[in-house]
Amino acid sequence: MLARRTLLAAGAAGLAAPLAASLSSPALAQAGAPVRFALDWALQGNHAMFALPDDRGVFRREGIALRMDRGFGSGDTTVKVASGAYDIGYTDVSTLVKFNAENPDKRLVSFYQVLDRTAAALITLKKSGITTPKGVAGKRLGAPEGEGSRMLFPAFSRVAGIEASGIRWTSMAANLRDTMLAQGQVDAVTGFLFTTYFNLVGLGTAESDIVAWPYAENGLDIYGSALVARAEWLERNPQVAAGFVRASVEGLKMLIAEPDAGMAALKKREALFDEALEKRRWGMTYERSILTPNVKAGGTGVLDSARAETLIRVNAEAYGVANPPKVADMFTDRFLPPAADRRIG
Predict the structure, then answer these.
(1) 334 vs 75, residue with greater confidence
(2) Which of 85, 29, 39, 83 is nearest to 59 (CA)?
(3) Tens digits of per-residue pLDDT, 38-86?
(4) Cα 269 to the chain's mean position, in Å?
(5) Is 79 in contact with 15 (CB distance < 8 Å)?
(6) 141 forms bridges with which residues in the sheet?
(7) CA 263, CA 285: separation in Å to the nearest integer?
């Protein structure tokens, strides 16, 4: 468990960013402290851990009037929270390493680590003939340039014993990655497992043809997405932060117990939301990235300094960061409920 540490105050954020149409329950915007919350992407099954307690008044009970907006990628969410356009974001914690090193006056902190394991993965199809991670050597590998799973691939290749020097990378827009794999334009891709997997299913790929090696299950065991906020905001709003975590943990428990209700809560916010597919995506997220051995032992949000240090180190190496942040400056457990209240599974 990480030692608790008072967060240093950060300077006021500057860049303005427009707010999207709110995905929150209108009835709950009537009372409590207004909190602007940005997700990491368009609505997916795991986001129901925020939508369901929003609908059932849990955030309002905690004194929070939630405004929840969709995201446009973890990097974009990180920038928007740092700028002050949003108070809290749900984003891949790896994005904080480079950002905090370059913007110490707008430092962001993970205050509830939702995904105990990153969803980054190496993914291919049976027709590629690749049967082990080492088999990607000399092949065509695709991912958007600068995307997190691609940037972490060198670290993954070292622990997985992959000869990476002969790999030929193809860059593309994120929305084309899975199509290019399905069409055979690349032999494999890197990306979030539960995003690429179900995108391939949506493209008509048989699930039996999808082969994947999650980084975290194959030697690179680092954290995934988290609730993050500016350090100075957390210092000014400790009760709001703690209440937001309590509501989120309660929402996670609701979603585990009532996945259909969770999908219905998201369908209310997005008419094109595919409840059946997203329920399956949620199941994979829960089984592979949330209910890990660490969480079974210590409860959701449990922090381990060694794993946090590994995440910072591999990201610093990937992005060439010479002055990476310290663990205690980027992670805190001071807003978590007691471990007994965070037991799941």
Answers:
(1) 334
(2) 29
(3) 999 899 999 999 999 999 999 999 999 999 999 998 999 999 999 999 9
(4) 20
(5) yes
(6) 169, 188
(7) 14
276 exposed, middle or buried (CB, 10 Å; 0-12, 13-18, 19+)?
exposed
Cα 57 to the center of its chain, rounded Å: 24
Is 315:94 a contact under the CB 8 Å cutoff? yes
Please tell me what DSSP assigns to residue 99: H
Compute the mean pLDDT over every residue in the chain, rounded to the nearest whole number. Answer: 92
**Residues 203 and 303 occupy one common structural domain:** no
Q: What is the structure's pLDDT at 27? A: 52
185, 217, 249 - which closes a domain: 217
Distance CA 240, CA 234 (A): 8
- Look at residues 217, 234, 259 and tell me which one is the last residue of a structural domain: 217
Exposure b/e, 287-310, CB count within 10 A at least 16 = b: ebbbbbebbeebbbbbbbeebbeb
- Strand runs labelled E in the chain: 33-38, 64-69, 88-92, 108-112, 120-125, 140-142, 168-170, 188-192, 210-214, 225-230
Q: DSSP assignment, residue 286?
A: I
> Does any domain span residue 196?
yes
Name the pLDDT band for 25 (thresholds 50, 70, 90). Answer: low
Cα–Cα distances in angstroms (integers) from residue 279 to residues 45, 79, 288, 309, 343, in the given order = 6, 29, 14, 33, 22
CA 293, 297, 300, 303 dihedral sign is negative
pLDDT at res. 12: 31
> Would you say 196 and 123 are in contact if contact means Cβ atoms under 8 Å apart?
yes
